[in-house]
TrEMBL record:
Organism of this sequence: Gimesia aquarii
Assigned keywords, A-Z: Methyltransferase, Transferase
Full protein name: Methyltransferase type 11 domain-containing protein
Family: Belongs to the methyltransferase superfamily.
Pfam families to which the protein is assigned, alphabetical: Methyltransf_11
Amino acid sequence: MKDSKTRFSDRVENYTKYRPGYPPQVLELLKTECGLSPNSLIADIGSGTGISTRLFLDHHNTVYGVEPNAEMRAAAEAFLKDYPQFHSIDATAEQTHLPADIIDFIIAGQAFHWFQPDRTKQEFQRILKPQGWVVLIWNERLVDTTPFLIAYEKMLLEFATDYQQINHTNITLAELEQFFDPHPIEHLTLPNHQIFDFPALKGRLLSSSYCPNLGEAGYEEIMKRLQEIFEENQTEGKIMFEYKTTLYFGHVK
């Protein structure tokens, strides 16, 4: 299996262009449920290319983006260069290099399943304020709501490399509860979607580290199948990816 800290290095351009953002209702939920304000200090752990970071920067928060992958970190720095309240840090969830007891909200978007839970929890406890929040967010692609999504999931199971091994859905609710223990964990879901033509759909697939890349074994086969299922399911040259955006939040300190 590829190293989790480098496996997206050759996916950065497609990741930046074609991964989904997060619904603005995320902010409203965190304001209502957790007291998020523009003055809240944010640590975005596993911040990647800055997709989740930007949501909070647009809310006028100061955000520390902690990302160990050099290529993704550079992409975030370019993407967010006009935000003076963004601070990019070359570090990991297990060792963020942030000072102790300063963070109001730790955010992890599409990233928590790459962390080492025990060491990460210790680090989160160190950098959070006493009543600070941990918020884990995933855009979860629906797999059985449309013929296209059913066919897409079947394609991944047949042609993708380590899709089943690294899928974030392998993390159970019990494991998340253990991470937050002894505090309760809450979760909420929101609808989300993307609409793609074929070149964008191809880019979305190639943003995934389990998809064979150009020149790798299996690339031609998965692209051929992608073209087939697109043509079978497109409407006016477009298809829809449906997601549910799930937030898990609570205290760990």
